[in-house]
Amino acid sequence: MDRKFQFLGFCGIFEEALNVTVSYRKIFSQITLSIILPLSLIILAQIEISEYLFREIIHNRYALKHTQIGSQRYSKISDILSSQWTTFWLFKISYFIFSLILSLLSTSAVVYTIACIYTEKEIAYKKVMKVVPKVWKRLMVTFIWNSIIAFALIIVLVIGIILWVVTLGPSVIGITAAIIFLLIYFSGLVYISFMWHLAGIVSVLEDVYGIQAMFKSKDLIKGNIGLCAVIFLLDKLCFIGIHLGFKASVVGGNSISGKIWYACLWFMLLSMLIHFALVIQTIIYFICKSYHHEHSDKSSLSDHLEVYGGDYVPLYSKDVQLEHSEV
What we know:
Blueprint: H1 2-6, H2 10-23, H3 25-65, H4 72-118, H5 125-167, H6 172-205, H7 211-221, H8 225-251, H9 256-291, H10 298-304, E1 307-308, E2 311-312, H11 317-320
Antiparallel strand pairs: 1-2
Helix pairs in contact: 2-9, 3-4, 3-8, 3-9, 4-5, 4-6, 4-9, 5-6, 5-7, 6-7, 6-8, 6-9, 8-9
Keywords: Membrane, Transmembrane, Transmembrane helix
Protein name: Polyadenylate-binding protein 1-B-binding protein
Organism: Heracleum sosnowskyi
């Protein structure tokens, strides 16, 4: 199985992802219909709903600004505005929770399925759905640690801005320093982001998760940072393109029939993007393993993918993180 991934380049990764998807389209279609499509619907629907709620808030803020303070109308608009802000933030929190759950479930299902495919193990939709809840818990721990790291980066950014304002300011040296700092900061942010995506794969396929999975993904990325960064940025550009396209043609559209047609189009494109992103991330995981000579033992991998009595049996590092081969 290792030789399969040793010589995969940029184009080869996409070709392999397409081949796997087409060859096992039945189970991937089932996973897409049950998890990925709802996730795509939530992501795009929240754009429309958020825009509507925010427009209402802006309208009432404008009305409040032009209403006499202390009047009955002022109190009424103020109450409505408070209620709208509460609704807006409750909606955003609900969106975050449901999208996170579906995102982690999608990752669990797709990664586990691909691992079974590569080990030539019989795989069925019901079997995947039994395993997914167990894998999901491991991914949640990894996500929490990623959130902690992301929060630490935000603190670094805030401290950097404060120090810049206090010491340098908008001078020539200050602007130059700010540009350099932001370039380094956003490079680190991109690195942490695709490290998190690979850590999700590690959490599913190995016995480590949480901060250990983050460290493991950091080690795996070494030697393939350029490839990971290019694919990650390409994925994000496609996502941004879909987001902007949806806002322009659906949120900003006038024709009802046109909005429906474009909504279906962006909905299908986003579902395809999420699916292929997860497949490609899993393939990159095996490429990184192969690059570091951590050869995967198909029989051991298959044994640990077994589900006994509905319980998920993780792939232990002694089996997946195989001994380094002699070069």
